[in-house]
Write a structure and sequence with these properties.
The protein has 8 helices and 12 strands. The protein has 231 residues and is α/β, with parallel strands linked by helices. It folds into 2 domains: 114 residues, Rossmann fold, CATH 3.40.50; 96 residues, Winged helix-like DNA-binding domain superfamily/Winged helix DNA-binding domain (Arc Repressor Mutant, subunit A, Orthogonal Bundle). The structure holds calcium ion. The site of calcium ion has 5 residues, from loops.
Amino acid sequence: MTTILLVEDDPALRRALRTMMRSRDLHVLDVATGQDAVVVASGGTPDLMVLDLGLPDIDGLEVLRRVRAFSAMPVIVLTAHHRQSEKIRALDAGADDYVTKPFDTEELLARVRATLRRVPQSNPVPTLVQVDDVEIDLARRRVTLDGTPVHLTRTELALLELLVSHPGKLLTQEFLLREVWGQGYGSESNYLRVYVGQLRKKLGDDAAHPRLILTEPGIGYRWIAGEEDPA
Ligand code: CA
């Protein structure tokens, strides 16, 4: 049975989420404070943590940092809709995904399922990734579209490798810029837009109806190939 650590200080919301999760055969450990969240997480039982960022004692981001110091378990954060920068900080601090309040409980469950599905894949990523007519050979650094080699620049290839090796995971602009361009490029999101646009064009992807790379406006990008419900 999958165990969810639910961290939410609002008693009504906590109860509603607990009931809903239990009705889907999830085992739920629920706590109302950051302090308790760290204690329960350190016990090693939970498979995934749903973490409200607005907690009464320790800031949710700090809880995330403390838990990340000893655990790689997937974390989905709950944030208020006007707190865009908080979402980005949480993703950069190691959250796997976020859900904006107020949210539909089904949406949260879908995120929980999608995140849990990715966990076994986060070990070795297959070196050969095939999506319809696109073939990406990470070991040989070769990409073909419908059997024809696609010429990618080093930057495009580096970006593609990062996306492909984190299937389904929302990667922030800052993370991608730092990894591909290096320290000091964390805010050059226009670079990213240009390079992602080129990648899409070369791989036959369409930003309006993506099958490979999904844009999360203002936040980052997600490799969605093979995901059942990328939403
Ligand atoms: Ca709260």
